[in-house]
User: What shape does this take?
Amino acid sequence: MAAPTPSSSGQTRTISLHRLWRSRPEVIAEFVARRPDYEQLCAEVQYILQRRLKAKGIEVASITSRAKTLPSFLGKIGGKPPDDPLSEITDLAGVRVVCLYRSDLPKIEQVIRQEFRIKERADKLDEQGADRFGYGAVHFLVSLGKKSSGARYDDLKGLLCEIQTRTVAQDAWAIISHHLLYKQESAAPSALQRKLNSLAGVFETADVQFDALRLERDAYLKEIREKEAVPDILAQELNLDTLVAYTQWRFPQLRANSDHLSRILAKVDRTRYTTIGDIDSAVAGAARALEEDERAGTSGPYEDGGDYITMALGFTDPEYRKSSGRREDAREALQMYQHLVDRGA
Assistant: This one.
């Protein structure tokens, strides 16, 4: 069988790249020489955002960065090339912040304004117009701010970095729509475009609902905290939020590890343990055994409130004891101090 013939489009791209290398070698050489600076700029901007957002208590899904690659740069200067590519192409360095909630976007913008010099701001959702759905994100064109001083920043001061901020829902929309449409060589059929735009409305509604759920949960947590006193907290439904609140109330000197408490919830019989009071009864019933185990250090130190709860359930609930897969030292403690629980029963 004959060897496959390269497509005309592939040949055209190869010829165009060769022509670029011949016609603009100085521009390409300058880009290659400066690219490490853009990589460092990406790393610096990403680090600053990670540190400051964490300090502000703003949880994000991801912060990623990338410096434009040589093939991508060549694609930018092909066709009608800019006169000064390294100045006119503004996305040679890029950082993307994907947050959980739309209401966090203004908070992230405030951090960006505090940490960087903003040359340009563009809201891509506003640019769509009121009659269209589509890609949503806020783009900032920034340079390092006054706080970034010292020799390590000297080569980066005049460089620009594009920061994109968007929600998880907006990020999902961008990824899916890019896969379905923008990688196609021909324009998308109008029917497909209409359906995709309609689907974008679902993503936008999801963003709004996520924010509403967040507000509802915050109100619920506030209500729980206000009831962190006997008997109010004990009457609450057993779930992760109430168990965290109970642990903070019952063992204030220890942390309340939500991952540990979640594992405990997964193993208890939820038909038997329906309220926080049911958990507290197990803790109270095992109080003497817990005290002796902690004093002797048989099962190791109690590092968080969940350790008390899981040991208490082990002492008072045979079914939980079977399903919890306890460590050897914990099994030893249960055998040694079980009589203290049985005696008090």
Confidence is low (pLDDT under 50) at residues 1-15. Strands lie at 60-67, 93-99, 116-123, 138-144, 161-167.
